[in-house]
Amino acid sequence: MSFSGQVKEELSRQSSGARHCMIAELTAIISLCGRITISVNDMYMIKIHTENLSVARKCFTLLRKTFNINTEISIRQNRLVRNSKVYSVIVKEHEDAKKVLLATKLINDDNEIAENLSIVNNVVVMQECCKRAFIRGAFLSAGSISDPEKFYHFEIVCATMEKAVQLQEMINYFKIDAKIVERKRHYVVYIKEGSGIVDILNVMEAHVALMQLENVRILKEMRNSVNRKVNCETANLKKTISASVKQMEDITYIRDTVGLSKLSEGLEMIARARLDNPDASLKELGEMLSPPVGKSGVNHRLRKISEIADGLRN
């Protein structure tokens, strides 16, 4: 099972204790993956379609617990995706459907249904716990999250900009930076940062998935830290080796042209020390001299030798 599937499985088993939270979660599910049909006799019927069995199960449970109504469940093969099924939860009775729609505020008191099935007012999600439940329902209906081992990405797909803005504002309420992008005639509310995804999992109360994501983040940060140190040490080593090779070439050139005895006593001492110890560090070279010389002093003498060699070459 994918990480996204694991999160949905965990959320589908979450049980909100308060009725108002269950209504908020059900509102999001109907808003994002539900349809309302109206017969010629003005009879309502609600159909909720999903490809995820856990979402269908959660929807069935919410309708039963919150409104104590009977629903039908149908299963059919998905024509667009092979080896995939579509689950439909159907509220057929007009009075039951009307009761659900009025409670979720997807219709107003005049029984008018908003064309995009957005919440008519904010009564359903006034409380913070209800906002959490709504976001949880939205993710169950139309959300996905990438495998954190690969990259960080959380998104919920909305059919209209109104729904996307409504959801974005709800997520931003929890100080999480959610953005909106248009993709293939849909509007996607997304979060890219790992810390933001950790926060949204906490908001939805997916605590098991949150701990799993945090473990991955810690391992990634440790791995990146080790890689940075190794790269830094490798770069320093390459730099040291290049400098040592250049010093050896300069000293050898002076020796083979005018002889090291032409150098001053201090420069000759360091030149011979370098020839005898090509792998030694500047600090080690300085300790070999009598009297010992500091690292900066050794570096200064080797730089002078390089200038002399360059002068001879020219």
The total count of helices amounts to 11
CATH architecture of the largest domain: Roll
Q: Which H/E pattern describes the elements?
A: HHEEHEEHHEEHEEHHHHH
CATH hierarchy class name of the largest domain: Alpha Beta
Distance between the amino and carboxyl termini: 70 Å
What is the CATH topology classification name of the largest domain? Endonuclease I-creI
**What share of the residues lie within helices?**
55-70%
What would you report as the Rg, rounded to the nearest angstrom? 35 Å
Can you characterise this structure?
The chain is of the alpha+beta class and 314 residues long. It has two domains: 3-205, Endonuclease I-creI, CATH 3.10.28; 231-313, no CATH class. 56% of the residues lie in helices and 14% in strands. It contains eleven helices and eight strands. The protein has helices at residues 3-12, 19-33, 53-67, 94-103, 128-142, 161-172, 194-204, 207-257, 265-276, 282-288, 295-313, and strands at residues 34-38, 44-50, 72-77, 85-91, 143-145, 154-158, 179-183, 186-191. The strands form two sheets. It has a four-stranded antiparallel sheet with strand order 1-2-4-3. Strands 5-6-8-7 form a four-stranded antiparallel sheet. Helix 8 crosses helix 11 and helix 10 (282-288) packs across helix 11. It is rod-shaped and about 110 Å long. The termini are far apart. The relative contact order is 0.09.
